[in-house]
């Protein structure tokens, strides 16, 4: 993974994991062990799906830059749809507290998207490839 991509992943995953840790503590205090487990599962789901999406988006940008914007919109729509499907499938679970899971899923998704937007704004990525000024063969 190129350094820009790794830096973007780091700048999005760390704040998301921090919010997930806070949500785990709060859920553990409010809803007990099942609440903490729900928060951990919610954080893991967001980190997994959004991380995979970021890697796919970066590879698309490298190989097919003309599809980057369309791919980004489609990817975010698909990610949100998958997260809603997770919510629908797990709403009746007794393995963990669903409210803790849902609120953590929402909070970490918002933090991920905001951190990713900030990382892209701060990144110094060239959008025009400079010409090679070396001797021509």
Quick tags:
137 residues, mainly alpha, 0% strand
Overview of this structure, please?
The chain has 137 residues and is mainly α. It is built from three helices and no strands. The chain has helices at 3-63, 68-90, 98-122. The protein is elongated. It starts with a helix and ends in a 15-residue tail after the last helix.
Number of strands: 0
Strand content: under 5%
Q: How does the helix and strand content classify structurally?
A: mainly alpha
Overall morphology: elongated
Mean pLDDT: 84
Weakly predicted, low-confidence segments: none
Helix content: over 70%
Computed over alpha carbons, the radius of gyration is: 18 Å
Order of helices and strands: HHH
């Amino acid at each position: 993974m190129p350094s820009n991509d790794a830096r973007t992943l780091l700048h999005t995953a760390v704040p998301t994991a921090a919010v997930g840790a806070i949500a785990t503590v709060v859920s553990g205090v409010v809803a007990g062990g099942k609440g903490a487990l729900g928060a951990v599962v919610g954080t893991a789901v967001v980190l997994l799906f959004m991380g995979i999406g970021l890697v796919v988006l970066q590879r698309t940008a490298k190989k097919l830059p003309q599809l980057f914007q369309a791919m980004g919109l489609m990817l975010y729509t698909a990610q949100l749809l998958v997260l809603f499907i997770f919510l629908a499938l797990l709403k009746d679970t007794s393995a963990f507290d669903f409210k803790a899971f849902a609120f953590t899923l929402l909070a970490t998704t918002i933090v991920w998207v905001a951190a990713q937007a900030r990382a892209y704004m701060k990144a110094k990525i060239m959008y025009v490839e400079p010409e090679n000024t070396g001797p021509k063969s």
